[in-house]
Give the backbone structure.
Amino acid sequence: MPTHYAKDYGLALGAAGFVQVPAKDTYEAGDVAVIQPATGHPTGHMAMYDGHQWVSDFKQLHGLYPGKTYRKEMPAFEIYRYPAQ
């Protein structure tokens, strides 16, 4: 079954071999954030850390949360990482 909303991608990432890691201030290149909805953004958000900043369909210049509403509300998020082989 396809996943339609960013907020629901945790299971799909797990099925692809990613593991959930504790949310912290130190992220690694390739980490994926699955962020729950904020007011006016019911689908949530996803972004990947490139080693310097979070990137989704744009470079997120203010950190993990993509916009003012997300930064104000700070909804829950999960971090997924593909383990080193």
